[in-house]
Amino acid sequence: MNGAAPVMLVTGASSGIGRAVALGAARTGAHLVLVARDGESLAEVAEECESLGAAGACVETLDIGDDAAVAGAVRRTLEREGRLDTVVNSAGVVAYGVLQAVPVDVFDGVLRTNLLGSANIARHVLPVLRAQGRGHLVLVGSVLGHIAAPGMTAYIVSKWGVRALARQLALENRDLAHVHVSCVSPGGVDTPIYETAANYLGVRGRPPAPVSTPEHVAAAIMRVLDRPRDRRQVGPANGLMRAGFTFLPGVYDALVGSLFGVAALDRTTPLARGPGNVLISLADGHSLRGSQPGPLVAMGRNVATLVGGRRRR
Ligand SMILES: NC(=O)c1ccc[n+]([C@@H]2O[C@H](COP(=O)([O-])OP(=O)(O)OC[C@H]3O[C@@H](n4cnc5c(N)ncnc54)[C@H](OP(=O)(O)O)[C@@H]3O)[C@@H](O)[C@H]2O)c1
Fold this sequence. Notes:
Blueprint: E1 7-11, H1 16-27, E2 31-36, H2 39-52, E3 56-61, H3 67-81, E4 86-89, E5 95-96, H4 104-132, E6 135-140, H5 153-172, E7 179-186, H6 193-196, E8 198-199, E9 203-205, H7 214-226, E10 231-234, H8 238-247, H9 249-263, E11 265-270, H10 295-312
Parallel strand pairs: 1-2, 1-4, 2-3, 4-6, 5-8, 6-7, 7-10
Antiparallel strand pairs: 9-11
NADP nicotinamide-adenine-dinucleotide phosphate binds next to helix 1, strand 2, helix 4 and helix 6.
């Protein structure tokens, strides 16, 4: 059984934000339980965590959309470590494409991981935190859980759902002063999620400017764990996007299509349509950061492609 080191379970720990959270917590000497669907990349992260100073790092290879698998991982953690202090649910997938273009299994797959997976985690983690009388569950949402964007319906519906879920859970657990549920909502972050996303638009997505690093988001999550609060935005433009969506809906709707096309897509290279990593993990889809060019370069290339296309017509 684990001694004094806090026990943190991180989902989506093999890549992007979840990986950055795991590595950040390892540096503080936490004991980590790392969750994702691909065991090989998790084993790599576990090794890295141990070399950075983690008290321990175990791997739980599972799909968070599978409620029984989540229950098993929580049970084994308690059997091994005797407690569970913090859980960061960062597992997530994306599908690009308007509703009718995205196959039903892919649409449902996004909701299964992002929304139902968050509910599965909460269903098995909260009773443990409540029985302990302390602990913290962080659900990673998105600025897209507050606004609308064309061609991302499955993801946006899932993230509005995650925000609603976190709000409900915070309300339902406010009777215990040391049990916390938070929703952390990043803007654009340079991670592999854009490269592994399901795609039925025919062009790749990219993080819109201003782009944060996964380490920056992980640091914000660690601060929320240190000083609990129900909601936290991470991204300098989140407030502006939310204000435009809420207070100027007509202007927002008129502009968002063109802005999204230039800032949140890579129009330079056509992309084959397919389910990406929504239904199964992809062998080479795991790393701390993505491989996107900077936002100014990407927007410049998009504008050049659009202008070139018009001239050729
Ligand atoms: N990147 C951004 O711009 C951005 C912005 C706002 C919010 N977010 C949110 O931040 C979170 C992390 O995203 P990221 O950008 O770090 O993505 P990422 O680099 O693609 O990492 C996603 C992680 O989730 C795991 N995963 C996916 N489906 C899973 C499932 N069903 N069960 C268990 N694990 C699963 C992946 O590993 P396996 O494939 O091996 O399972 C991987 O470890 C997501 O919730 C995302 O929606 C991202």
